[in-house]
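User: Quick sanity check before I run a bigger batch. Here is a single chain. Can you write out its predicted 3D structure?
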Amino acid sequence: MSVMVNIDVADLKSAVAFYADAFGLTLKRYFGDRVAELAGWPVALFLLQKEDGSIGAGSSRRTYERHWTPVHIDIVVADINEAVARALRAGAIVEQDVRTTVWGKIAVIADPFGHGFCLIQFLNRGYDEITEP
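Assistant: Done. Predicted structure follows.
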Protein backbone atom coordinates (compact mmCIF):
# COMPACT_ATOMS: atom_id res chain seq x y z
CA MET A 1 0.00 0.00 0.00
CA SER A 2 1.18 3.54 -0.68
CA VAL A 3 -0.12 7.09 -0.40
CA MET A 4 -0.33 9.76 -3.08
CA VAL A 5 -1.28 13.39 -2.55
CA ASN A 6 -3.20 15.20 -5.29
CA ILE A 7 -3.55 18.98 -5.18
CA ASP A 8 -5.84 20.81 -7.60
CA VAL A 9 -4.39 24.06 -8.93
CA ALA A 10 -5.57 26.68 -11.40
CA ASP A 11 -2.19 27.11 -13.13
CA LEU A 12 0.12 24.10 -13.36
CA LYS A 13 3.37 25.91 -14.23
CA SER A 14 2.89 28.42 -11.38
CA ALA A 15 2.11 25.58 -8.99
CA VAL A 16 5.22 23.61 -9.97
CA ALA A 17 7.32 26.73 -9.36
CA PHE A 18 5.65 27.42 -5.99
CA TYR A 19 6.04 23.89 -4.61
CA ALA A 20 9.64 23.68 -5.83
CA ASP A 21 10.57 27.04 -4.33
CA ALA A 22 8.55 26.72 -1.11
CA PHE A 23 9.35 23.13 -0.20
CA GLY A 24 12.41 22.16 -2.23
CA LEU A 25 10.51 19.65 -4.36
CA THR A 26 11.67 18.76 -7.85
CA LEU A 27 9.70 18.09 -10.99
CA LYS A 28 9.75 14.37 -11.68
CA ARG A 29 7.60 14.34 -14.81
CA TYR A 30 4.61 15.80 -16.62
CA PHE A 31 1.59 13.80 -17.71
CA GLY A 32 0.52 15.89 -20.67
CA ASP A 33 0.02 19.57 -19.95
CA ARG A 34 -2.41 19.23 -16.99
CA VAL A 35 -0.65 17.00 -14.43
CA ALA A 36 2.82 17.17 -12.85
CA GLU A 37 4.45 14.77 -10.43
CA LEU A 38 6.87 16.28 -7.92
CA ALA A 39 9.49 14.41 -5.91
CA GLY A 40 11.12 15.10 -2.57
CA TRP A 41 8.51 14.11 0.01
CA PRO A 42 8.02 10.57 1.35
CA VAL A 43 4.74 10.45 -0.61
CA ALA A 44 4.11 11.06 -4.29
CA LEU A 45 2.75 14.57 -4.95
CA PHE A 46 0.69 15.29 -8.04
CA LEU A 47 -0.46 18.75 -9.10
CA LEU A 48 -3.62 18.63 -11.19
CA GLN A 49 -4.65 21.64 -13.25
CA LYS A 50 -8.41 22.12 -12.86
CA GLU A 51 -10.30 25.24 -13.87
CA ASP A 52 -11.77 27.54 -11.25
CA GLY A 53 -15.52 26.91 -11.15
CA SER A 54 -15.31 23.36 -12.52
CA ILE A 55 -17.14 20.62 -10.64
CA GLY A 56 -15.08 19.19 -7.78
CA ALA A 57 -16.92 16.81 -5.45
CA GLY A 58 -20.64 16.18 -5.72
CA SER A 59 -22.04 19.42 -7.10
CA SER A 60 -19.46 21.66 -5.40
CA ARG A 61 -17.48 23.92 -7.67
CA ARG A 62 -13.75 24.40 -7.29
CA THR A 63 -12.59 27.69 -5.93
CA TYR A 64 -9.05 28.83 -5.48
CA GLU A 65 -9.90 31.45 -2.92
CA ARG A 66 -8.73 30.45 0.55
CA HIS A 67 -11.02 27.63 1.63
CA TRP A 68 -11.37 25.33 4.60
CA THR A 69 -11.14 21.58 4.37
CA PRO A 70 -10.97 19.03 7.16
CA VAL A 71 -8.05 17.32 5.40
CA HIS A 72 -4.75 19.14 5.09
CA ILE A 73 -1.05 18.41 4.89
CA ASP A 74 1.41 18.87 7.76
CA ILE A 75 4.96 19.37 6.54
CA VAL A 76 7.63 18.43 9.08
CA VAL A 77 10.68 20.67 8.83
CA ALA A 78 14.04 20.89 10.59
CA ASP A 79 13.93 24.69 11.06
CA ILE A 80 10.49 26.28 11.10
CA ASN A 81 11.70 29.87 10.79
CA GLU A 82 13.71 28.99 7.69
CA ALA A 83 10.75 27.01 6.26
CA VAL A 84 8.31 29.89 6.82
CA ALA A 85 10.70 32.37 5.20
CA ARG A 86 11.21 30.07 2.20
CA ALA A 87 7.47 29.55 1.77
CA LEU A 88 6.85 33.32 1.99
CA ARG A 89 9.47 34.01 -0.69
CA ALA A 90 7.70 31.49 -2.92
CA GLY A 91 4.32 33.22 -2.50
CA ALA A 92 2.72 31.58 0.54
CA ILE A 93 0.62 33.53 3.01
CA VAL A 94 1.23 33.11 6.74
CA GLU A 95 -2.12 32.72 8.46
CA GLN A 96 -0.81 31.94 11.95
CA ASP A 97 2.70 32.88 13.02
CA VAL A 98 4.99 30.32 14.59
CA ARG A 99 3.84 29.26 18.02
CA THR A 100 5.61 26.92 20.40
CA THR A 101 4.02 24.04 22.26
CA VAL A 102 5.49 21.34 24.47
CA TRP A 103 5.75 19.00 21.48
CA GLY A 104 7.10 21.49 18.95
CA LYS A 105 6.55 24.57 16.84
CA ILE A 106 3.75 25.10 14.33
CA ALA A 107 2.90 27.73 11.70
CA VAL A 108 -0.16 27.77 9.45
CA ILE A 109 0.33 28.90 5.85
CA ALA A 110 -1.67 28.90 2.62
CA ASP A 111 -0.41 28.37 -0.91
CA PRO A 112 -1.41 30.71 -3.78
CA PHE A 113 -4.23 28.28 -4.69
CA GLY A 114 -6.16 28.53 -1.42
CA HIS A 115 -4.86 25.33 0.20
CA GLY A 116 -3.80 25.43 3.84
CA PHE A 117 -0.75 23.70 5.31
CA CYS A 118 0.87 23.42 8.71
CA LEU A 119 4.63 23.61 9.02
CA ILE A 120 5.79 21.63 12.05
CA GLN A 121 9.14 21.43 13.79
CA PHE A 122 9.20 18.76 16.48
CA LEU A 123 10.93 19.51 19.79
CA ASN A 124 11.89 17.25 22.67
CA ARG A 125 10.07 13.95 22.10
CA GLY A 126 7.59 15.41 19.60
CA TYR A 127 4.01 14.15 20.01
CA ASP A 128 5.23 11.70 22.68
CA GLU A 129 5.30 14.74 24.97
CA ILE A 130 1.50 14.72 25.04
CA THR A 131 0.69 11.02 24.93
CA GLU A 132 -0.65 9.37 28.04
CA PRO A 133 1.23 6.40 29.56
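The longest strand covers residues 93-100.

User: Great, the batch can go ahead then.
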